[in-house]
Every structure is written in structure tokens, then in C-alpha cells.
Amino acid sequence: MPRLGPDGSPPVTRHPPLTGPAGRGEPAPAGLAVGRQRGAARGKERPVPAEATTLAPTAPSRLLRSTRLPSPAGLRAAIPADPDVRAFVDASRSATAAILHGTDDRLLVIIGPCSVHDPAAALEYADRLLPTTRELADRLHVVLRCYVEKPRTALGWQGLVNDPGLDGGQDIDRGLTVSRRLLRDLARRGMPTATEFVDPLLTGYLADLVTWAAIGARTAQSPAHRQLCSALDLPVGIKNTTAGNIGPAVDAVRVAADPQTFSGLDADGAVSVLSSAGNPDCHVILRGGDDGPNYSTADVAATTGLLRTSGLRPRLVVDASHGNSGKDHLRAEQVVAELAVRVGDGEPGIAGVMVESFLRSGRQDLVTGRPDLLDHGRSITDSCSDLDAARTMLRQLADGVERARRHR
């Protein structure tokens, strides 16, 4: 969304809605019209929202286009969370918070694809994993990674919200629609979901369907993300930085726990001054960093000690992937096995474990505009363990919880 200009945002001229088939040979999604977008010179038609606008004369010269999205309330009305879904999400959030606070002795496990690029494959993964998660529900609270935004250190595919067609189209309107429908479908199946909020302006479109959220290593120091966390009605994990620094994540948890006043979008999409009550369910995620892994007993003890000194709850989540495995899914499986033993030994502080998994192991490269070349159920971002390995890891963690209970 472009920033408002110093002149108070002069009015813009709205084009009348256009109609017709979308450039990919599909009907335009509800609320969209078809027109030329940047890139049409390469022979590609892309659907654009009916609220596409011409730029005001005072707009920055490097701003090429302004396209008005529907409001969060509008998308929620179009793809509503029915009462059963709302009750399910509320219950799964409460269970997650109880584990983080230590009043529920189960282990939180966040497992699933690095980033979702194929909603059908994500639903298949959930359907095939659900029998195991239900079997182990007395020891584990399993939440599915359904990451629909992809933060980037440099360039690359930016996630399902930004590029649902895997074609570089940046069709965010369609991406939000596809992502919200996926989250609702997963909740209807009885699978809680986790996601990372990358763009704070888009959070209101999806947050009511999410059980647990992450703030990533690249945004842990962002004031806007810390303020966002303070207003969310769900537990939020905040990662240490990519360099491996723990302090910024601890600071972020402290900030998010306090009331905040900040600018953001309200449910109708208007820029507003928002005031939050603070979020007591935020926590640190250890994900490793440039200086190596940080999931050891000593690392956990040092971090929980820092949390305690800061007046925060000394419980955290360990990410077995990313910097703690060097993005090697086989190494991540070994990390999970080690964590399961430590949980069984009664090591304090570990409230949850995160690991990346999909239908097939490994990863593959995306050729932009050629999703037909992709293997079904294999990650196009970081390397993931397959479904069989996921079941094994869940059983290892459940056994660790059972052993810890016997020692109490």
C-alpha cells in the first residue's frame, strides 16, 4: 500500500470495472476485473482489482501503479469463519497458550511445509497427518505450518499471498482469497494452523483463522511487528535474528506484552490509530543463526535465564530447521530426536518444537510460470522431511513427553 502523501492524499480517478475472461483462460475471481498490468508487453494478461486507480500527479515518480484491495472485513465476509471454525480456533489457541504457560504438560509441535505453494498438496498433507496427530493428542498439541507469506533476504518467490500463480504475477488479491480459503478448510478438518506474518497490513485478512503465528528472524527487531504482536488474539513466537542474537527476540516479547498505540489498518481497511492491551502469549523461538545452532541444553538455559531476568516466562520453542540444521532436513530429523530425549529427561524450558515437513522430502527449484514442472508435494523453498519422517518425529516427541511424565 503506497504511503499517504504530505498533501493529504488527493483524490484518485477510479477506472470503471472491466469484465471478461482472465488472461490465464480462467474467469476473473469475485471482486476482480481484467485489465492490462505491468508485464502485459510480454504478452501476459493478468487480472487486476476493479479498484485499480490512476496515480495522482503528486505520487512518487517511481510508483508505477496503485491497486486498491478489498477490506479485511470484506474478505472475511466473502470467506466467513463459521461458528464451528471460530470455536475450534479459539480452543486450539487456548491449548497452545496453556502449554506455553506450563499449565498443560503436553508439547507444542509446529510441523509442515516451509512455505505452502500448492493448497491441494497442503490439504492432502493435513489429511494424511491427522490420524497420527489425533492418536498422539494426549501428549502433543500439533499445529500445521501453513506459511503463506515468504520473507526473503534477497530475491525469490514471495509466497502464496503474493504470487499464488507461481508466475511472478503478484496477484495479492487472489493470493489472499486462496490463502484464507485454505486456512478455513484446514480448520474445518480439525487441523490448527500456524503462519508467519510478514506484511503487517495483511494480517487482518487471515489472523482470525490462525492458531499460532511467528515473527521471523528478519523482522524480530521491527517496531511495527512488535506492535502488531501486542494486538493479536493468539500466541506468537518471535525468532532470534539471522545472526543468532537472542536479545532482540527477548526485547520483542517484552514490547509485545505491553499496551501499544500505533498506526495500522482497521477492519474496513482505513488507516487508523490502534491501541492494544498487550499480548501475554508471546515467546522466543531459537532457530540458530550465522554463528551456528542454538538448540543445545546450554543455549536453552541461557535463553530461559535471560527471559527470567527480563521478568518473562522462561519457556520457549526450538526450531529444529533453519539455522539449527543448516537447512538440511536429515539433520533436522536428528535435532528432533535429540530434543525428544531431552524432553524425556525433564529438561526445563522447552515448551515446543518446530520442524519442516511435506509430502515428499527435499526441495526443488521453481521455474517461474511453469508450475506444471513441479513434483507434487515437494517444497519449492527450504528442504523438508517427508510424511513418514514426520510421523516418526511426532512419535519420538510423544514418547519423550510420556517418559517425562513417568519421572515426575
From TrEMBL:
One of its GO terms (molecular function) is 3-deoxy-7-phosphoheptulonate synthase activity. Residues 1-51 are annotated as: Disordered. It catalyses: D-erythrose 4-phosphate + phosphoenolpyruvate + H2O = 7-phospho-2-dehydro-3-deoxy-D-arabino-heptonate + phosphate. One of its GO terms (cellular component) is cytoplasm. Residues 20-33 have a biased composition (Low complexity). Gene3D superfamilies: Aldolase class I. Residues 96-388 form the DAHP synthetase I/KDSA domain. Transmembrane segments: none annotated. Pfam families: DAHP_synth_1. It is an enzyme of class 2 (transferase). InterPro entries: Aldolase_TIM, DAHP1/KDSA, DAHP_synth_1. Keywords: Amino-acid biosynthesis, Aromatic amino acid biosynthesis, Transferase. Pathway: Metabolic intermediate biosynthesis; chorismate biosynthesis; chorismate from D-erythrose 4-phosphate and phosphoenolpyruvate: step 1/7. The keyword Transferase applies. Belongs to the class-I DAHP synthase family. Stereospecific condensation of phosphoenolpyruvate (PEP) and D-erythrose-4-phosphate (E4P) giving rise to 3-deoxy-D-arabino-heptulosonate-7-phosphate (DAHP). This is Phospho-2-dehydro-3-deoxyheptonate aldolase. It comes from Amycolatopsis antarctica.
